[in-house]
Amino acid sequence: MQTPDHTVVAQTLVAPGDSFDRWHHVTCREFSLTECRRVADEAFQASISIRHLGPLAINDIWSSTPAADRIRVMRSASDVRRDPRDYFMLWLTLRGEVGFAQGGRDVRMRRGDLMLHDQAQPFTLEFAPSARAIMVSIPRPLLLARLPDAQRLTARRVGSASKVGALAGSLIRRLTRLDDAAGPAAIRLGAAALDIFATTLQTELTDEAPQRGDERLMRVKAYMLANLDDPGLDLDAIAAAQNMAPRTLNRLFAREGTTPIRWLWQQRLAGAYQALAERRFSHVTDVALSFGFSDVSHFSRAFKAAFGRSPHQVMG
What we know:
By secondary structure, the chain is of the alpha+beta class. Helices cover 42% and strands 22% of the residues. The two termini are 15 Å apart.
């Protein structure tokens, strides 16, 4: 459990010998709303421990079942609608095989492999008869602030042969043994770990040669991210800075099912969440102004609508 001063303290949620019902409650209700076919208690062993590092949760998960009763967890579209929790999960497989399907992609992870999954989209997760993995839960805005296109990188394997992936995996393992970081140190360590995770995913999963339209979109996004603090940044200003017509700008973002201004506000809110969670500001007003909001009340309402928590609650 996370203590008020954000000390890293391990907590055992499921211990070997606990019933399947206990495991089901933790994984299918506390982590997120999902469903799983029942496994007989006499054939089931599992353990789950959790520790917090600032806003991150590092979960060490192990299970053992007969081959015919392997664990299969499913999250449907109706589960997503009924469950407001919104995290990305970064997985590191330590033993056995973990299968995952999301967004039309199916990945099989073995020892040392990494993979990202999105809690806000339906998925299927399957564990081999004996499997162990570490799952890092990341609040959506904290990853989007570093990796705006994270949703497009889910269910894609970063193999154990990747050098940068191995670095991220080693860090995740060490985080499960960290017990002496507290307060600002825990928050800074969590932020540094997130930087490495985002860099790993971007480096390993976005190396395809971009099409011409993708190159233009990447340039526009880079410009917008560099000017999040400008309250005058609107469609016409962005289009003029990029030497393109507003209609063309809208078409580029329509390919991703959004608009330039909607994407801009998502990045502003994600950046503000990151700044608040990492205690980079002492006052909410300073955060609002730094991310292009001229009206603090409007910022607070938009923030609460996006994340279900007020700026002051995220600051702690």
